[in-house]
Design goal:
Blueprint: E1 2-6, H1 16-30, E2 34-40, E3 58-63, E4 66-71, H2 81-99, E5 107-112, H3 115-128, E6 132-136, H4 142-146, H5 153-169, E7 172-175, H6 178-186, E8 194-196, H7 213-218, E9 225-230, H8 240-251, E10 257-262, H9 268-277, E11 283-287, H10 294-299, E12 303-307, H11 321-327, E13 332-335, H12 339-347, E14 350-352, H13 358-369, H14 372-389, H15 392-408, H16 410-416
Parallel strand pairs: 1-2, 1-5, 2-4, 5-6, 6-7, 7-8, 9-10, 9-12, 10-11, 12-13, 13-14
Antiparallel strand pairs: 3-4
Helix pairs in contact: 1-15, 2-3, 8-13, 11-14
């Protein structure tokens, strides 16, 4: 098949949507398919174009056989609602226009986030008259309401109307977890129109390995119990809880425990200033690191902390960080309610805490720091479960089967007669 994939993010960006699209497309190319990805110049999360790139009208490159086409967008940091919406809209217009100059595909996919990326795929599919798969990784605009990033009622109503319209025009919807599927059903999407293809673990990159002692020495964490948060440091993450927990641990004289926040985003600078003001030398901020360095970071991590603010919407979320941590046999402290928490419990891969509860975070960290056998037990159990159920190769094949059915019209025909 000739597959056209619209994605706002793509490597060398290392966030979850970029990684998912890359891992899928890389495998589809390997299986003999022709894959084009229309994306932006890499700039996430601080709105600064990566070295080696420029924000031109069009740039093309081949990444592991994937034809990657980068279009011009209005670039801004990953904060501030108005400027970000302009960024999303500029991508929609540039990407839709670029889609007209590519050899006619057999199928078009567009992934959220971001919301207007979905519309780029929708418009292009109508202009090119080919089937369209909408991939939902984020319920938008609900997700921005959940973090109080937008309060304009009229604008929200308009965006919600666009959201429902996008669901209707898609030939099929692929989402990444049961929580999202349930939310889509509540919004009136028919069950036959939805398929789940979850995220998974890349076993070539994320597998158990010896600690990177040079990195541990560089970060001055030798002999420490390291609890790492790895990912975007954004409004939804609620990482104030780390500062509160670190304060309590300092008062308890647990100098053997340190937190590491690996990544960048809208709230990193503020968190860093707050930590410095109160003298929290038990928190290390590394800033954004290349995706290729994350396995080394995980190798010196004793427990991975995964957290989102306490809100009903985030009960639908399944963070991809879970798979990477489990792939390297690291125990997980999960501060995300709902489906993600149930997966950790089912896998016996770690400890679940209430989101934004600093006392429970302190207790979980101490429990793991004081029991190396428990660390190993959770890590080993999580590894076995994730490798068995969430292998990237299997998931790419499952997705490919859906593409084939939608491209041939068999899924649409089945939905029509159901």
């Amino acid at each position: 098949m000739h597959i056209l994939f619209f994605s706002h993010y793509f490597p060398p960006e290392g966030n979850a949507p970029a990684s998912r699209v890359y891992e899928l497309c890389k495998r589809w190319v390997k299986y003999g398919h022709d894959v084009n990805v229309i994306t932006c110049v890499p700039n996430v999360p601080d709105g600064v174009v990566y070295d080696g790139y420029k924000n031109r009208l069009v740039q093309k490159e081949i990444i592991d056989g994937i034809r990657t086409i980068r279009v011009w967008t209005f670039i801004t940091a990953n904060k501030g609602t108005f400027r970000r919406i302009i960024n999303y809209l500029s991508y929609m217009f540039s990407a839709t226009l670029m889609g007209m100059f590519i050899k006619k595909p057999d199928i078009i996919i567009a992934t959220s986030p971001q919301f207007f990326c979905g519309w780029a795929g929708s418009i292009s599919s109508r202009l090119r008259r080919v089937p369209f798969i909408l991939e939902i990784r984020d319920i938008w605009p609900e997700s921005i309401v959940a973090v109080d990033a937008m309060k304009n009622g009229c604008l929200l109503q308009f965006l919600e109307w666009l959201e429902h319209k996008m669901y209707r025009v898609a030939d099929h919807i692929v989402t990444v977890g049961e929580g999202y599927r349930q939310r889509l059903l509540e919004k009136g999407v028919s069950e036959e129109k939805i398929t789940i293809v979850m995220n998974g673990v890349d076993r070539d990159m994320f597998h158990p390995r010896d600690p990177d002692e040079r990195l541990a020495q560089k970060l001055n964490v030798q002999g420490k119990f390291v609890c790492s948060y790895i990912g975007t440091v954004g409004m939804a993450c609620g990482l104030d809880v780390v500062l509160q927990a670190a304060t309590k641990l300092k008062r308890m004289h647990r100098d053997d425990i340190v937190f590491m926040i690996v990544g960048d985003g809208a709230t990193k600078a503020e968190l860093e200033v707050q930590a410095e003001e109160v003298g929290l030398n038990n928190i290390i901020f590394t800033g954004r690191l290349p995706k290729t360095q994350i396995p080394s970071v995980l190798s010196i991590t004793n427990a991975c902390f995964i957290h989102l603010k306490k809100t009903d919407l985030f009960k639908t979320v399944m963070p991809s960080k879970i798979f990477e941590a489990a792939g390297m046999a690291r125990p997980i402290i999960i501060g995300v309610e709902g489906f993600a928490e149930s997966i950790i419990k089912q896998a016996n891969a770690g400890i679940a805490i209430e989101p934004e509860n600093d006392q429970q975070l302190v207790e979980a960290v101490i429990k793991l720091a004081d029991d190396s056998t428990l660390q190993e037990q959770y890590g080993s159990s999580g590894l076995d479960f994730i490798v068995c159920h969430f292998n990237r190769d299997d998931l790419a094949n499952d997705y490919l089967a859906i593409l084939s059915k939608v491209a041939n019209g068999t899924i649409a025909e089945a939905a029509l007669h159901s």
